[in-house]
Amino acid sequence: MGAPNAGKGTLCDEISKVYGLVHLSTGDILREEVKKGSDIGKQVKAIMANGHLVPDEVMVSLIMGKISGDTHVKGRGLLLDGFPRTVKQAEALQSAGLKVHAVVSLEISEDKLLERCLGRRVDPVTGTSYHIKFNPPPEEVAKRCIIRSDDTADKLKNRLNIYNKQKDGLMRFYERETIHIDAGQSIDSVFAQFHKNMGIIELRSNMVEASTQTSISVGPNATAEEVVVAVRDALRVFAK
Fold first, then answer.
1. DSSP helix/strand/coil, 29
2. Which of 38, 61, 81, 97 could pair with 12 as two cysteines, CB 3.0-4.6 Å apart?
3. Strand partners, 106
4. What DSSP designation does 2 have?
5. Average pLDDT, integer, range 79-99
6. Which residues does the annotation mark as catalytic?
């Protein structure tokens, strides 16, 4: 999760390449619907152009449809980009029995968000995003690049206001699952921070899964060392 232009899509691309996760981007899904001219696409076109968020029920329906229709999700795992954005969307995931093992919160200043927003260019042929300062497109691509309709200072401000209002509720909902990353740096630095945290994410995941299949027994007066040993023993049983 992160504010508009925090770099969610760029980081997700790197994560999916390295870890093999299925990457679902709400922005890409919505733009695809608009391009197809579907009923949902027509419904959300004006909403997106004005920098507003698509209603919860529409987003939940789209995401659940994509998840259920992708046969690779169960074997490879899922990386959600821009979803959930509200507590209602998070509750829908929970109700569907989908366990969220980690939430990556990208932290960045508003000044840097604005710089990224105004400098972004998109190749309409491939959908690839560039930046005129940080990642300029090749000369032959630059000629056809466009500026997205929501990449303006006013629309960014509106989207930020909406994001900030919803962020606190989501942070409370996923308090135990959240890791924080400084997203104001280069993509290499941001990915390095994520990679460093993968050990914590995997440990959390293993502990949750192990706790459902094994028992962890310690006395009320157990020391910290005894608790650690008990958890390790449970994980060894799970690993077998």
1. helix
2. 81
3. 2, 181
4. B
5. 93
6. 8, 85, 120, 148, 159
pTM of the model: 0.75
Q: What are phi and psi of 27, to 5 degrees?
A: -60, -45
Residue that has been written with the tokens 């990353």 in this structure: 181
The whole-number pLDDT of residue 212 equals: 45
CA distances from residue 219 to 43, 74, 216, 224 in whole angstroms, order as listed: 58, 37, 10, 11
Q: Cβ(33)–Cβ(40) under 8 Å?
A: yes
Compute the distance between CA of residue 121 and CA of residue 148 in angstroms, rounded to an integer.
Answer: 7
Q: Which residue is associated with the tokens 């046969």?
A: 71
Instruction: Report the SS3 class of residue 161.
Output: helix
C-alpha R_g of the chain: 20
Q: How far apart are CA 101 and CA 165, in angstroms?
A: 24
